[in-house]
Amino acid sequence: MISEGDPVPKFEVNDANGNKVKSTDFKGKKHVIYFYPKDFTPGCTTEADEFSKDYKKFQKEKIEIIGVSPDDVDSHKKFCEKMGIEFLLLADVDKKVSKSFGVWGLKKFMGREYMGVNRSTFLVNEKGKIFKIYPKVKPAGHSKQVLEDFKNLN
């Protein structure tokens, strides 16, 4: 995994509307990049719902929210429509972004091992440097914690 103080790895992927989004699009902006395993699963739905409910508070602080998962554009579009998500969801279908952040790896669930996204969040300052990493996120309450930490640390 990358470390606090590191620059955001360069990436270019599609959002839920099929538009190309590049890491350089956020230069000079504070932003949250959160990685989650899969659209429409319980934890991911909770996390997206909380970020959605707090989105106006993030906007007031001039903080962009970017969600990333291996789901495709169509899945993200449906997830955005159903959940009322206004922030960006990026389709990391080839897992390049997840791998560059170090969040793609071995997972264990009910005695089964498989490869997947380890739920993680990265806070990025205006200089494109990561100043806070949450390597093992619990979805409930996470959005409020991120907003509070952004206010306190930046």
Which SSEs are present, and which pair or pack?
Elements: E1 12-15, E2 20-22, E3 30-35, H1 42-53, H2 55-60, E4 63-69, H3 73-83, E5 88-91, H4 96-101, E6 104-109, E7 112-117, E8 120-124, E9 130-134, H5 142-153
Parallel strand pairs: 3-4, 4-5
Antiparallel strand pairs: 1-2, 1-5, 3-8, 6-7, 8-9
Verbal overview:
The protein is of the alpha+beta class. It has a 7-stranded mixed sheet. It has a two-stranded antiparallel ribbon with strand order 6-7. It has 5 helices and 9 strands; from the N terminus they run βββααβαβαββββα. The longest helix has 12 residues, at 42-53. The chain has helices at 42-53, 55-60, 73-83, 96-101, 142-153, and strands spanning 12-15, 20-22, 30-35, 63-69, 88-91, 104-109, 112-117, 120-124, 130-134. The two termini are 22 Å apart. Helix 3 (73-83) links the parallel strand 4 and strand 5.
Count of β-strands: 9
Taking the alpha carbons of the first and last residues, their distance comes to 22 Å
Please state the CA-atom Rg, rounded to the nearest Å.
14 Å
Biggest sheet: strand arrangement? 2-1-5-4-3-8-9
